[in-house]
Amino acid sequence: MYRSSLHDTLSVYLVTDTAGYEHRSAAEIVRAAVAGGVTLVQLRDKQAQLRDVLPAGREIRELCRSAGIPFVVNDRADLALLLEADGVHVGQDDLPAQEARRLLGPDAIIGVSAGTMEEAEWAVAQGADYLGVGPVYATASKKDAGEAIGTDLIARIRSRWPQLPLVGIGGIHQGNAAPVLASGAQGVAVISAITRQSDPQSAARGLADVCRRR
Amino acid sequence: MYRSSLHDTLSVYLVTDTAGYEHRSAAEIVRAAVAGGVTLVQLRDKQAQLRDVLPAGREIRELCRSAGIPFVVNDRADLALLLEADGVHVGQDDLPAQEARRLLGPDAIIGVSAGTMEEAEWAVAQGADYLGVGPVYATASKKDAGEAIGTDLIARIRSRWPQLPLVGIGGIHQGNAAPVLASGAQGVAVISAITRQSDPQSAARGLADVCRRR
């Protein structure tokens, strides 16, 4: 069952791979982003070998633990177990939420991606703790993300489940985050708007400001 | 540490997805293949949604359990846990063998793919129970398999680790299996040579005969 205790946790939701950017490692980017006000970190790496993802992921998990914010892993519950993550975020093709929970336990945070009302129904029925809804805007960060769907679905999901925690995802940055929040999302999930900026800390702070001002 | 108790278990090693073929389900193909003499089944499905892989995988696991042969899952230790598999088979990009063992326990069968001597060294150092060596011949079943490498590497690995259980994989069928065994493999791993045949049982029996005659 979803929990409204996640509402504050979902304001600035960072999705990161382990690749780093320019002269910074992924851990350095996460450290800066957390200092700027990120409230949750999801590790999502579809490229790197898992032998490399593991040490980088442990470093990011430690940063999150020190900062007191949740750390979740995309897709793979096995990786989440090995990284002692707080949960897992699954897509519609991945493990069903209730199967992920069997592996990670009742206290794990299980998030599910939804791009349609039917996908949202399925996720809620499966016991998702929160939804990632999108892609709200066009995105280049996630190659399989599909067509942008705007903010309507967020409003419809909010109206159907008033207490369900949810974040918008897909092409969101400081300049276009406000309509996502106005539609009823607790927060915004971003990749490049933080990880591919020259100053990840100030990018995170900018997003945190938008969330605070709503 | 690898175990020579696996030697007999590795003679006819079936790799299957959950797609089925023509009028047969994957479980029907596995049932026929087991009746024909398959000695281990690996579930490897990179296409289907995991919500569909789970029920199909449970059916295949039950068949293997009834037949008293091991059932392993490709790549994902989380799926292996949910399917109560006997182990996992990992590629070089997947979880390192020793991390997979942390999740599945000391008795799990952990196999590792190797296409070079360096990859074999890494796998043995990581505590692989057996190796899958290839692609021996050209294959269309596995899109990311790379160039065929022939049987030389099998002979070199056999000479370096005389007791290490290993199977050849990649483009192997009844007509070209003998050189793989002659090079020192305990057995042959096949996909289409069983799963895409009109009579999977007799295809498996043909391969079992080749293994028995060596």
Q: What helical percentage do the residues of chain A reach? A: 25-40%
For the largest interface, the chains and their residue counts are: A-B, 19 and 19 residues
- Under the CATH scheme, which class of chain A? Alpha Beta
Main pleated sheet of chain A: 8 strands, parallel, barrel
Mean pLDDT score of chain A: 95
H/E series of chain A: EHEHEHEHEHEHEHEHH
| CATH homology superfamily name of chain A | Aldolase class I
Using only CA atoms, what is the Rg of chain A? 15 Å
Enumerate how many helices of chain A there are, as a single number.
Answer: 9
Distance between the termini of chain A: 27 Å
Number of strands of chain A: 8
Q: Order the strands across the largest sheet of chain A as they lie in space.
A: 1-2-3-4-5-6-7-8
Oligomeric state of the chains? homodimer
Q: Give the CATH architecture of chain A.
A: Alpha-Beta Barrel
Coarse morphology of chain A: globular
The secondary-structure class of chain A comes to alpha/beta
CATH fold category name of chain A = TIM Barrel
How much strand of chain A? 15-25%
* Uncertain segments of chain A: none
EC number (chains A, B): 2.5.1.3
Pathway (chains A, B): Cofactor biosynthesis; thiamine diphosphate biosynthesis; thiamine phosphate from 4-amino-2-methyl-5-diphosphomethylpyrimidine and 4-methyl-5-(2-phosphoethyl)-thiazole: step 1/1
Keywords (chains A, B): Magnesium, Metal-binding, Thiamine biosynthesis, Transferase
Function (chains A, B): Condenses 4-methyl-5-(beta-hydroxyethyl)thiazole monophosphate (THZ-P) and 2-methyl-4-amino-5-hydroxymethyl pyrimidine pyrophosphate (HMP-PP) to form thiamine monophosphate (TMP).
